[in-house]
């Protein structure tokens, strides 16, 4: 539609006059040969810019309520980013602070990592020991409402902002779980979420367990410290690295964790359009656990940085990856500050495992697939009779309650139990080869 002449510049004319000179400056320095080769790609579509300016002016003049220019432009920027991929977004000053808090490991909320999948707000994973975790929320639960607000028209950041709040306040989430026909409502009480990303314990003498719940700035050092503590009780014969329901986090932290088990070789590399988005990360010589047999647990809630670690250890043949297919987030986001104190979170690269595998929308396939479950003995069976059930049995002098608690965990967590069994089998094979 042709532009109408006007006595004075309209909003539409002002926008075109601002945008077009900028576009010309961007392509003016190109050599003639480059202009000939890429003119079709680099030239901005003038007609679409004029259409955008016309839409802007129509809204300003005809929308039922008056809307400020600043709000319209900000919404336009949000729209541009939201249509690219689920992880690119516009960040105002509050959202900048929220992002900083999440990487530092303390914020107020319910302890849930979310993303957008097929336009629907979706649980990536609940964070350990948080209200969402205790309420039983699971990876790929769809969140239909936050209190009384439908989520289908919310951006990802708007949804996160709604779920965060003052500790002690309540929030209602309406979720739809895969395989269920009717939604369910869950009421959670917000807490101050202080997340220590690494936990460790001995499952049995010589067999350690490392749980990494997310990747924060100091996660790599925490993993090294945890390995040292486990070794205080004696040499390790095997180690389980649990990355299940780990939503990812800081890229460098994932490199540091993989480096704790590798003494050489590539960990991950990234590829993008900008020169600074192409990076390669390799392991250093100093390694916390270079030779300890290793099983890495993953599931559908293992995403991003967790997949980097699992993929690196798998490609380097450093450990056996066990569990179920991971989430499949193989993109890298950069935070780009703007002059107004706000910023962009923009996807600028894809990452690849050492063997060149892209994780994006595919995930990591485990070496050994073990579905989550629990082994139970039928009530009518007499197979669960043990020495301790017999009258007059002799008691072990050093029986400890902690051992029985770990045994109960292994019975309830089938994947963890199978990981421990595999480590024992690997040790048996290693001893036989040595003999």
TrEMBL record:
<feature type="signal peptide">
    <location>
        <begin position="1"/>
        <end position="34"/>
    </location>
</feature>
<dbReference type="GO" id="GO:0030288">
    <property type="term" value="C:outer membrane-bounded periplasmic space"/>
</dbReference>
<dbReference type="InterPro" id="IPR029045">
    <property type="entry name" value="ClpP/crotonase-like_dom_sf"/>
</dbReference>
<dbReference type="InterPro" id="IPR004447">
    <property type="entry name" value="Peptidase_S41A"/>
</dbReference>
<dbReference type="InterPro" id="IPR005151">
    <property type="entry name" value="Tail-specific_protease"/>
</dbReference>
<comment type="similarity">
    <text>Belongs to the peptidase S41A family.</text>
</comment>
<dbReference type="GO" id="GO:0008236">
    <property type="term" value="F:serine-type peptidase activity"/>
</dbReference>
<dbReference type="Pfam" id="PF22694">
    <property type="entry name" value="CtpB_N-like"/>
</dbReference>
<dbReference type="InterPro" id="IPR036034">
    <property type="entry name" value="PDZ_sf"/>
</dbReference>
<keyword id="KW-0732">Signal</keyword>
<feature type="domain" description="PDZ">
    <location>
        <begin position="96"/>
        <end position="164"/>
    </location>
</feature>
<dbReference type="GO" id="GO:0007165">
    <property type="term" value="P:signal transduction"/>
</dbReference>
<dbReference type="GO" id="GO:0006508">
    <property type="term" value="P:proteolysis"/>
</dbReference>
<dbReference type="InterPro" id="IPR055210">
    <property type="entry name" value="CtpA/B_N"/>
</dbReference>
<dbReference type="Pfam" id="PF03572">
    <property type="entry name" value="Peptidase_S41"/>
</dbReference>
<protein>
    <submittedName>
        <fullName>Peptidase S41</fullName>
    </submittedName>
</protein>
<dbReference type="InterPro" id="IPR001478">
    <property type="entry name" value="PDZ"/>
</dbReference>
<dbReference type="Pfam" id="PF13180">
    <property type="entry name" value="PDZ_2"/>
</dbReference>
<keyword id="KW-0645">Protease</keyword>
<dbReference type="GO" id="GO:0004175">
    <property type="term" value="F:endopeptidase activity"/>
</dbReference>
<keyword id="KW-0378">Hydrolase</keyword>
<keyword id="KW-0720">Serine protease</keyword>
């Amino acid at each position: 539609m042709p532009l109408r002449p006007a006595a004075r510049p309209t909003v539409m004319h002002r926008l075109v006059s601002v945008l077009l000179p900028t576009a010309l400056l961007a392509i003016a320095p190109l050599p003639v040969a480059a202009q000939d080769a890429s003119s079709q790609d680099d030239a901005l579509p003038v007609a679409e810019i004029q259409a955008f300016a016309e839409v802007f002016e129509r809204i300003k003049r005809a929308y039922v309520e008056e809307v400020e220019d600043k709000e319209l432009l900000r919404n336009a920027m949000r729209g541009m980013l939201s249509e690219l991929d689920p992880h690119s977004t516009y960040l105002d000053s509050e959202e900048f602070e929220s992002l900083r808090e999440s990487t530092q490991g303390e914020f107020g909320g319910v302890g849930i990592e979310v993303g957008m999948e097929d336009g629907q707000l979706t649980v990536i994973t609940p964070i350990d020991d948080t209200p969402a975790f205790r309420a039983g929320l699971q990876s790929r639960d769809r969140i239909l409402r936050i209190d009384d607000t439908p989520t289908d028209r919310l951006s990802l950041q708007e949804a996160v902002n709604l779920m965060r709040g003052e500790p002690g306040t309540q929030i209602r989430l309406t979720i739809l779980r895969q395989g269920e026909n009717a939604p369910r409502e869950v009421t959670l009480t917000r807490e101050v979420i202080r997340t220590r990303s690494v936990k460790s314990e001995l499952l049995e003498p010589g067999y350690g367990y490392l749980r990494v719940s997310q990747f924060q700035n100091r996660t790599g050092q925490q993993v090294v410290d945890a390995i040292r503590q486990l070794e205080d009780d004696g040499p390790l014969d095997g180690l389980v690295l649990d990355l299940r329901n780990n939503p990812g986090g800081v890229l460098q932290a994932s490199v540091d964790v993989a480096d704790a088990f590798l003494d050489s070789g590539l960990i991950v590399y990234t590829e993008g359009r900008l020169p600074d988005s192409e990076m390669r990360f390799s392991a250093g010589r100093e390694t916390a656990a270079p030779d300890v047999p290793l099983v890495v647990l993953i599931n559908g809630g293992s995403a991003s940085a967790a997949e980097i670690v699992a993929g690196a250890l798998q490609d380097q043949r450093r450990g056996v990856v066990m569990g179920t297919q991971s989430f499949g987030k193989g993109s890298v986001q950069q935070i780009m500050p703007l002059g107004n104190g706000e910023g962009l979170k923009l996807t600028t690269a894809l990452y690849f495992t050492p063997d060149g595998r892209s994780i994006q929308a595919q995930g990591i396939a485990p070496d050994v697939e073990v579905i989550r479950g629990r082994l139970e003995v039928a009530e009518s069976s007499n197979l669960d009779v043990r020495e301790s059930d017999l009258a007059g049995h002799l008691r072990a002098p050093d029986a400890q309650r902690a051992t029985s608690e770990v045994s109960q965990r292994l019975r309830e967590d089938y994947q963890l139990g199978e990981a421990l069994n595999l480590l024992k089998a690997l040790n048996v094979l290693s001893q036989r080869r040595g003999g």
